[in-house]
Amino acid sequence: MKIYFDHEKLEAYKKALAFAQWAEAILECIPKSAAVHNQLDRARTSIVLNIPEGNGRFTPADRCKFFDIARGSGLEFAGCLDLVFTKKLLSEAELDEGKTLLKDIVSLLVGLIRSNSPDRMHEETIEYRVRD
């Protein structure tokens, strides 16, 4: 795939796209009339769309805001998978696969948030003087 935009270089974005494709098969097993179907579709879409939006922002705080929304959507999708599993619409293997993929994405997003966080802790050099 040819790269046209900076966000396409991000591992989080690549994995989010792969996850969205993986989730398509899960969505096909869930009736469209079920509320969780719409929630799953919106959460996977949110993960994918908020990464480029955040990466395109100029200020670190704005970038973090959108990466955090994508991270939250990943966690939301994990909760939806649990719900679908309790309804016996998902096997334990599928649940494990989905959560493993999501864990990777969420971890990468946390890394992006930390690296862009405007309130990152920096050690400042302080000169200490002893009074005579």
Describe the structure.
With 132 residues, the chain is mainly alpha-helical. The protein has a single domain, classed as de novo design (two linked rop proteins), CATH 1.20.1440. It has helices at residues 11-28, 35-55, 60-86, 92-116. Helix 1 packs antiparallel against helix 2, helix 1 (11-28) packs antiparallel against helix 4 and helix 2 (35-55) runs antiparallel to helix 3 (60-86).
Notable characteristics:
mainly alpha, de novo design (two linked rop proteins), elongated
- Which structural class fits the helix and strand makeup? mainly alpha
Number of helices: 4
Could you say what the CATH architecture is?
A: Up-down Bundle
Measured by DSSP, the beta-strand proportion falls in under 5%
- Sheet with most strands: none
How many distinct folded domains? 1
Q: Compute the CA-based radius of gyration.
A: 19 Å
Average pLDDT, to the nearest integer?
92
In total, how many beta strands? Answer: 0
CATH topological fold name: de novo design (two linked rop proteins)
CATH class, named Mainly Alpha
User: Secondary-structure element order, as H and E?
Assistant: HHHH
Our measurement of the CA-to-CA distance between the termini, rounded to an integer number of angstroms, reads: 68 Å
Poorly predicted regions are none
CA-based shape: elongated
| CATH homologous superfamily grouping | 23S rRNA-intervening sequence
Helix content: 55-70%
